[in-house]
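Re: that chain you flagged

S.,

Sorry for the slow reply, it's been a week of failed gels. I finally had a moment to sit down with the sequence you sent. For the record, here it is as I used it:
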Amino acid sequence: MSQKDEFHNIDDPSDGLFRDLAAGVTTRIFSGEQAMLSVVTLAPHAQGTLHHHPEEQWGVLLDGSAIRVQGDEEIPVKKGDFWRTPGNVPHTMRAGPDGARVLDIFSPPRPEYKKAGSGFGTT
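Prediction finished late last night. Pasting the structure tokens below so you have them in one place:
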């Protein structure tokens, strides 16, 4: 494998493994050995499905605004905010009026995200 294969662009819609997560919510996934990145795009007012998984997850709001639903709380987030979601904590995201783009980081990589498809996996 060329080292060039290890370089990606966050704004290239053709880069990464595509998954359709929910109505108005898509992601491009980049998987390594110990971590996985997911660039999630949410249409205005789109919301993901409340779900949980055993992997630890960090998120960074890259663009737009959103409400982070985590556990039994709803927390407004703005560009530049980031958060940690421990394993097995129920969570989702609801985009604001301009939509949102989020970089999620999983450790270890989520097995169900290593292939194209649809849905969030574990619920």
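What I noticed first: The mean pLDDT is 94.

Talk soon,
D.
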